[in-house]
Amino acid sequence: MSRAFTLAVIPGDGIGPEVVAEAEKILDAATAGSGIRFEKTRFSLGAGRFLDTGDTLTDDDLASIKAHDAILLGAVGGVPGDPRLKDANIERGLLLKLRFELDHYVNLRPSKLYPGAPGPLADPGEIDFVVVREGTEGPYVGNGGSIRKGTAHEVANETSVNTAYGIERVVRYAFALAERRGSKLTLVHKTNVLVHAGGMWQRIVDAVATEHPDVAVDYLHVDAATIFLVTNPSRFDVIVTDNLFGDILTDLAGAVTGGIGLAASGNINPDGAFPSMFEPVHGSAPDIAGQQKADPTAAILSVSLLLDHLGLHDEAQRVTRAVEDDIEARDGTARETSVIGDAILERLRA
Ligand code: NAI
Ligand code: MG
């Protein structure tokens, strides 16, 4: 097979370029000799670009990114609290804007405790689940405002937007995934209090469930879910949840599965109308940037998700296996970013 994919690469700020360099090494090696090529375009976006030019994400950037088959992103953002970045609006104006404009309605975050990975739980059992977080609705859409700002009478609204269309499409994705994994789906919400949105989520899950008789369906309130993620994470397989709950749960999920250096994610448009974006969950880590101290594993596992999304399942599996082998061999000795990347590269080639 000979095939070329176009890839938009956004290294970003801080450790972003360091981990993306390793991720690209692995991507190139995983497809070397197979006739599959990645034609890469580099985009300078993030805090650095804002400081240089005052731009966050221009219409031209967006149009150009849209024309690619997929996106690989490192991390964006400067030192939290840097006064020069007060108006940069990196979170809403760049990251969320990409997710909304590219209709990334599935935010996919696999959580697996690899053998040998350090974790905070004394008796974790087997942890291997995937969070399917809705990515385009909920309280993150910017549907709000405030009046009488700065006064004792200030009013602030941040309205959660939930549509039947938006919920159904992400629920369908989650059921299909649960069916492929031969397992179970857990809806996480807060239906006892958020009765309007929660009720609609529950009804849609119940309706789609009738088309998937092989998938066991479970429900947990989000507060209870945080308990079980710590006391009995093995009970989860596919979790489907809204944008806000998913944001919080996936940080917890990352923490119980070896930490921020390992957590990968995909912002996915399953319809293929727009390119999907793959990125480590972590940020730009200004505290360790430029020192080769960052663990590139999360970025490399994001490459595996990217390959899988493009239908390159064997290549994806080879990357994951190389990472698993490397994690299993870790003994706690600190290694530089490129040393970890090279070690995984060597296992991939073996
Ligand atoms: P962060 O994830 O960058 O760092 C949190 C802590 O984890 C730091 O101590 C850091 O050194 C450590 N860490 C992160 N990634 C690591 C890795 N690969 N290996 C080893 N240690 C790692 O989160 P923080 O400090 O809240 O944010 C820093 C900047 O990143 C901010 O500007 C923030 O807005 C941005 N950010 C960007 C994200 C993205 O691009 N998707 C996501 C989260 C934060
Ligand atoms: Mg988060």
Textual characterization of the structure:
Helix 1 (16-31) packs across helix 9 (297-309), helix 1 packs parallel to helix 11 (337-349) and helix 5 (164-180) crosses helix 6. The chain is built from 11 helices and 12 strands. The protein has 2 domains: 1-104 and 263-350, Isopropylmalate Dehydrogenase (3-Layer(aba) Sandwich), CATH 3.40.718.10; 120-256, 3-Layer(aba) Sandwich (Isopropylmalate Dehydrogenase). The strands form 2 sheets. A 10-stranded mixed beta sheet has the order 2-1-3-12-11-4-5-10-8-9, sandwiched between helices. A two-stranded antiparallel ribbon has the order 6-7. It is 40% helix and 20% strand. The longest helix is centred in the middle third of the chain and has 17 residues, at 164-180. The two termini are 22 Å apart. The model has no long low-confidence stretch (mean pLDDT 96). The protein is globular. The chain has 350 residues and is α/β, with parallel strands linked by helices. The structure holds 1,4-dihydronicotinamide adenine dinucleotide and magnesium ion.
